[in-house]
């Protein structure tokens, strides 16, 4: 299964990917996680990406495309992958298409998780992440257990200001690529405004 999870910031892409990878036995490739790891490690890519990410802007296509094409060429992606947060622009979608064509493989599905804008800021500003396990929590919707309260962190770009900038970028740059996949007949649209378990069931059904 070669698939993409797409949707606005806070739609639940990371939450759903964590629930789905076991079912499909494919690696979860989150460009946001890869870029945050590069920032934490202080690599050249990380130094370049940091400012864009904190401002809620997109990291330049050339950097992200090279990072993803290299990643999906690795052995663990031979029978599939779940991309989360890529592609986010038309050039990224076209570069992915070309790379898959060159490898004589194709995407099976693009899952669009839709959540109305008015719910996004609350989801994003309430998010907390466990740096040890990568687990995603929410102060209200999925509170972290008592024994890890002290170590959960808030992402630097989870401020209201950066969230609104990310949402604007989603509408101007990412939403326009959705027809590209609808035209290929591989788009599956799922309402993400429900409990996480219900959203997982909707995605699983949409993929059947
Ligand atoms: P990235 O990390 O990809 O951020 P994003 O797309 O904005 O998505 P999020 O991770 O914020 O949200 P999510 O949909 O995964 O939601 P989650 O499951 O965590 O990218 C960060 C930055 O990196 C970008 O702004 C950009 O700068 C750069 N970047 C990354 N990829 C790039 C690319 N391809 N090109 C250029 N730049 C790139 O859930 C959110 C919260 O809601 C959590 O607290 C969760 O517990 C809660 N929640 C989840 N589901 C539900 C539910 N059903 N009900 C209630 N609460 C829920």
Layout of helices and strands:
Elements: E1 2-6, H1 13-24, E2 28-30, H2 31-41, H3 44-55, H4 61-72, E3 81-84, H5 90-102, E4 109-114, H6 120-125, E5 127-129, E6 136-138, H7 160-174, H8 178-183, E7 187-191, H9 196-207
Parallel strand pairs: 1-3, 1-4, 2-3, 4-7
Antiparallel strand pairs: 5-6
Helix pairs in contact: 1-9, 2-3, 4-5
Bound molecules: BIS(adenosine)-5'-pentaphosphate.
BIS(adenosine)-5'-pentaphosphate binds at residues 7, 9-15, 31-32, 35, 52-53, 56-59, 64, 85-86, 88, 92, 123-124, 126-127, 136-138, 141-142, 157, 166, 192, 194-196, 199.
What does this protein structure show overall?
The protein is α/β, with parallel strands linked by helices. The protein has a single domain, classed as Rossmann fold, CATH 3.40.50. It is built from 9 helices and 7 strands, in the order E-H-E-H-H-H-E-H-E-H-E-E-H-H-E-H. Helix 1 crosses helix 9, helix 2 packs across helix 3 and helix 4 (61-72) packs parallel to helix 5. The longest helix is centred in the C-terminal third of the chain and has 15 residues, at 160-174. BIS(adenosine)-5'-pentaphosphate binds at residues 7, 9-15, 31-32, 35, 52-53, 56-59, 64, 85-86, 88, 92, 123-124, 126-127, 136-138, 141-142, 157, 166, 192, 194-196, 199. BIS(adenosine)-5'-pentaphosphate (AP5) binds next to helix 1, helix 2, helix 3, helix 6 and strand 6.
